[in-house]
Amino acid sequence: MTSTLNLWLIPILPLAGAAINGFLGKKSSRQAVTIIALFFSGAAFAMALWIAMRFSSLSLPYQEFLAHWIRSGSFSADFAFYLDQLSLVMLLVVTGVGFLIHIYSVGYMGDDPSYYRFFSYLNLFMFFMLTLVLANNYLLMFIGWEGVGLASYLLIGFWFTKDSAASAGMKAFIVNRIGDFGFLIALFLLIKHFGSLNFEQVFGGVARLSPETAGTGLLTAIGILLTLGACGKSAQIPLYIWLPDAMEGPTPVSALMHAATMVTAGVYMVARSHAIFDRAPTALSVVAIIGTLTAFFAATIAIAQTDIKKVLAYSTISQLGYMFMACGVGAFSAGVFHLMTHAFFKGLLFLCAGSVIHAVGGEQDMRKMGGLRLYAPWTFLTMTIATLAIAGFPPLAGFFSKDEILWKAFSSEHGSWVFWLMGVITAFITSFYMFRLWFLTFLGDYRGAEVGKHGAAHRDHAHNGHGLPHESPMVMIVPLAILAVLSFAGGWVGIGNRFENFLAPVFRTGAVANPAEAAGEPATHLELYLTLVSVAAALLGLYLAYLLYHKRQDLPQKIADALGGFYQTVVHKYYVDELYAALFVKPLINGSTGILWQGIDRNIIDAAVNDAGDGARNVSDEVRHMQSGNIRSYAGWIAAGSAAVIAFMIWMWMAAR
Amino acid sequence: MSTDNLSSIILTLVTFAPLAGGLLLTLLPRRDRDIRIFALVISLLTFVLSLHLPVYFHRAQTDFQYQIDKQWVSTPNIHYHMGVDGISLWLVVLTTFLTPLCVLISWKSIHERVKEFFILLLILETALIGVFTSLDLFLFYFFWEATLIPMALMIGIFGHERKVYAAVKFFMYTMIGSVFMLAAILWLYAHTGSFDFVVIRDQIASGAVAKFPGAAQWLFLGFFLAFAVKVPLFPFHTWLPDAHVEAPTAGSVLLAGVLLKMGTYGLLRFNLGLFPEQSRHNAWWVMTLALIGIIYGALVAMVQPNMKKLIAYSSVSHLGFVVLGIFSFTQAGLNGAMFIMLAHGVSTGGLFMLAGILHERRHTYEIVEFGGLASPMPVYAASYLVIVLASAGLPLLNGFIGEFLVLSGAFQAKAVYGILGATGVIWSAVYLLWMYQRVFFGKVTHPVNNSLSDLSGFEKMAIWPCAAAALVMGVAPIVWLGAIDPAVQAALTPFARVASRMVGQ
């Protein structure tokens, strides 16, 4: 380590901001809180940029030791950091998008009485997320992993007087814990077999496993358990249920954590662990299948949602499914590419949605919007770019990354045409529900109530004293504009496989030849045809949305009526929440109350104890007797017991001598 | 006085300083404020004195340190033998750390028979420290039983509605368990002529004790029963919820914080130390009981309508982790078990103080009586959240370190133990966060709660050290593990021997 980058400063800076605002913010002015929050998140971003500029001169992977953390026997886990191409991409996305959303929040949260608390939590999130991304071992990563869960808990439940918000926060934390359970078991397996959780040691150990044993059992088990963890954090089947509820949080939170960064932690973790997955094809297939199913399944739910944030939430789940699909077919760099572009356009979509909600005074139901292009032109413009990007229209960012995934799903050695086909169908649905949202919100005529009267009832950005919908202030528009540029052009870094080549040192350690490259010309033609198919799917989605939500606005209701029960099932998200409640939550609570507590604890164990104490009398009598509070009788008990013990002691003593 | 001289009497000083203070307290006039201040000064002084132990502790040395060994009674051969190693060291400090906090949290809440209360508290502290510092089995047993009396009186006199029932149940339950240990101790004395832990351990290890092989299983069980009741291990746990619900706050803090650790400390020191082979043979069912405790305790905690009972059952779950770690016979498992003992003392001690603060304001622990408290009591809510997260094992707070190490050790011993135990990380989040939500979030449902006052100065002084300790222990566990690790390694050497002998057969 010739020159030190002081990587540790990157997470510590926002932590300092969180601490200052958390402890002192209540008594500080709004300006002071704003300056602290923006300075510390901005400083982290500046450091990330500085590192990016020096990046080519570094010998990678760059590692940095800060302090010992846990030592137990030969096992140790330290506060130590790791930087390579993958963590650099994550670093830039997290600090960059994070900083923009901090700025946006200054406007969005401006009226909130707990302004300082919001920024303290937001900075805290940055600390944990950056720890996650920069860790050089799984345990430090786990700090960030659980820590972002905590930040998410705090921010979803930010308006804690609202019961639904508090419940959503708890649900998010607990569902994530189920995933963390898998993560932990994977760590135990790693410790048991490799004696370490350091990335270098673990991946070195994995590489040294003989080819005969590598595929069997161990790595597959580790891979599947890590996948379970990733499913929790990245909201994949069967643990996706927390993310839609997470929309109870303030909209900037939905943008930053529940779209752009935190939920991608699972994808990052799988990509980081590629050395394990590369040698565990079964685990890889599990990832691909989960991703594909989730992408499709969540997209279908998004079609029938009327809450603008819920549509985007299911869309996020669906897009994360794409990233899983990519990782699952071994195309980690394509997954990370989509992670990055998605951070731009989905972050933008949420911020636009926030701006829309702001414009109409807290309303989130799209049926009460419409015509907003006239009232909020900047929001309209940026949202249009974001919508085109997610729908996969060239030359916007989403097109490049999604196309890359679909191509890899088709052509990779772990891929299959089934993944590709599902991906294309999902792309069609995506385009449809996104343009549905776009038409409902921005086109046609305004269908909402007068702004202000209606908005006062809502916690999510309540505003008073306006008549018509209005555009957001500049402090919110600027981040929208920057993200719009990124959503437009952010995919161009992938042209000519530049992004893939940048990440190649991370992912192609095994020097696996890319079959598509080896095949040469014919594959390129095929790639072009497949691209045309997916663009056609996007166009078809756009056309259908235009038809149903602009031209023939009577049709959606007719279709819904015709579908009947099936439509209701989709509207109710396939009743998965109800199913989980009936299968797990209720039996657990009833069983714990009825069988464990009242049954075993009271009626068996405690009854036996009281019985033994009393002898012949029955239990209830005994308890009542005990409760009668005759102090002298208890003094007698104590005396008798003590006497018995002393007598026993003396007897033993004699026997011993 | 040079540190060498001090080192030879430091354990005596630390152990008996509170008792001396308690005796002096009897002479003080009944001016409540003076009594409180005096008790605080004594307990703080004891804490400062006890810091000598970790500061001058030789971490690499695995033998007992600060030893003092004087003949007390010649027949029977009883020694005043005290000493600490990396295992007992921190338990002493935990006790001296929690006691001043107990004084602070009782400052306002105990307003009748103040003098008696603080005398009992200080006597209890001496007895607890004595348990961890004694190396003579007679002395150990003396302190062990001596903890019962002040604790039972604290519950019986200063407790809530069903205090006498709870006090008697606590007393009888643990007393009956202890009798079996006494029998085992006396057997050992009869066959070794010594009460000295080190002497007996070495004699057993060298095979010099007559009739030992035949008696070993019974001896193991004798000690085990006493400790299992104290831990408490499922199914010996039903005294705990009753005792806690009725106990005054300070009683609950020391009960959960330190008294329960006497059980796990005993298992580690005596069951493992004296009977390694029997420990191995019996490990499978002990670990099964520990696992049941982890899951069962958590599930029953989840459905408790009473906050204090919930915390009490959560202790059953947490202490299950400790026993699981101890009987995994792995370095990680034992390190983790030790660390949970300390972490649980701090965080559950904190939780009981927090529950007590609510009780003082509303005279109830029923969760339905609360709701929305984060609005009128923001500082209280924030402090509570830190402690809840520590208890739920959030990384960077103290609960995580121990749980992680224990589960990792249990997993190495047998994968299924680690997997079942790890479900605990889900359960603890469920019962703690659900409780937290019902108490603090939503709108205030009972108007009376709107006017609840936030933490007072004394309360902050009692709670914040716990929160700070939870954070420091989570960030720099190495400070504690540095002393624990070598001691655990030494404690495990007989197991390496047993294992190699088994392989050799």
Set down the secondary structure blueprint.
The complex is a heterodimer of chains A (657) and B (505).
Chain A: H1 9-24, H2 30-54, E1 62-72, E2 75-83, H3 85-108, H4 115-134, H5 138-156, H6 163-194, H7 199-208, H8 211-214, H9 218-233, H10 242-245, H11 251-260, H12 265-272, H13 274-278, H14 281-303, H15 308-328, H16 332-359, H17 372-375, H18 377-391, H19 397-411, H20 417-442, H21 474-489, H22 498-507, H23 515-519, H24 521-551, H25 555-563, H26 565-571, H27 576-614, H28 619-627, H29 631-656
Helix pairs in contact in A: 1-2, 1-4, 2-3, 2-4, 3-4, 3-11, 3-16, 3-21, 4-5, 5-6, 5-11, 6-9, 9-12, 9-14, 11-16, 12-16, 14-15, 14-20, 15-16, 15-19, 15-20, 16-18, 16-19, 16-21, 16-22, 18-20, 18-21, 19-20, 19-24, 20-24, 27-28
Chain B: H1 3-27, H2 32-55, E1 65-73, E2 78-84, H3 86-109, H4 114-133, H5 137-146, H6 148-158, H7 163-192, H8 197-205, H9 212-230, H10 239-246, H11 249-274, H12 276-302, H13 307-326, H14 331-362, H15 378-391, H16 398-413, H17 415-440, H18 457-475, H19 478-504
Antiparallel strand pairs in B: 1-2
- For the report, how would you describe the main beta sheet of chain A? 2 strands, antiparallel
Overall number of strands of chain A = 2
Low-confidence stretches of chain B: none
Radius of gyration of chain B in whole Å, from Cα?
Answer: 22 Å
Strand arrangement in the largest pleated sheet of chain B: 1-2
Main sheet summary of chain B: 2 strands, antiparallel
Model description:
The complex is a heterodimer of chains A (657) and B (505). Chain A has 657 residues and is mainly α. Chain A has helices at 9-24, 30-54, 85-108, 115-134, 138-156, 163-194, 199-208, 211-214, 218-233, 242-245, 251-260, 265-272, 274-278, 281-303, 308-328, 332-359, 372-375, 377-391, 397-411, 417-442, 474-489, 498-507, 515-519, 521-551, 555-563, 565-571, 576-614, 619-627, 631-656, and strands at 62-72, 75-83. In chain A, a hairpin with a 2-residue loop joins β1 and β2. In chain A, α20 (417-442) packs parallel to α24. In chain B, α11 packs antiparallel against α14. Chain B has helices spanning 3-27, 32-55, 86-109, 114-133, 137-146, 148-158, 163-192, 197-205, 212-230, 239-246, 249-274, 276-302, 307-326, 331-362, 378-391, 398-413, 415-440, 457-475, 478-504; strands at 65-73, 78-84. Chain B has 19 helices and 2 strands. Chain B has 505 residues and is mainly alpha-helical. The termini of chain B are far apart. A two-stranded antiparallel sheet of chain B has the order 1-2. The mean pLDDT of chain B is 91. Chain B has a domain at 275-505. The interface between A and B is large, with 67 and 74 residues.
